[in-house]
Amino acid sequence: MSVKNIELKKFGHKVRMLRQVKGLSQEKLAELAGLHRNYIGGIERGERNVALLNILCLARALEVSPSQLLEGIE
């Protein structure tokens, strides 16, 4: 597995963990972030390389800072 894929999986795991802590479904997170549910699933599985604007939307929807989403991903 490439470094890039590992980083995407780490980011996806972080999004999933925060979503679950907030008690949100993928569908509800997608609604709050203005994104499609399938896109959220792809992020959580580490299949999507998320654009900056979408990171900002996810952070707002999860009520965390963008840096918290990226924490631990290097």
Properties at a glance:
globular; mainly alpha; 434 Repressor (Amino-terminal Domain); 74 residues
Fold topology:
Blueprint: H1 3-21, H2 26-33, H3 37-44, H4 52-62, H5 66-70
The tally of domains stands at 1
Order of helices and strands: HHHHH
Instruction: Quickly name the level 1 CATH class.
Output: Mainly Alpha
Quaternary form: single chain
Helix content: 55-70%
Give the low-pLDDT segments: none
Shape summary: globular
Mind summarizing the main beta sheet? none
CATH topology: 434 Repressor (Amino-terminal Domain)
* Helix-strand category: mainly alpha
Q: Write the CATH architecture name.
A: Orthogonal Bundle
What portion of residues belong to β-strands? under 5%
Number of strands: 0
Rg value: 11 Å
* Full CATH superfamily name: lambda repressor-like DNA-binding domains
Mean pLDDT: 95
The rounded distance between the terminal residues' Cα atoms is 15 Å
Q: Helical stretch count? A: 5
Description:
With 74 residues, the protein is mainly alpha-helical. It has a single domain, classed as lambda repressor-like DNA-binding domains (434 Repressor (Amino-terminal Domain)), CATH 1.10.260.40. 69% of the residues lie in helices and 0% in strands. The model has no long low-confidence stretch (mean pLDDT 95).
Short description:
The chain is mostly helical.
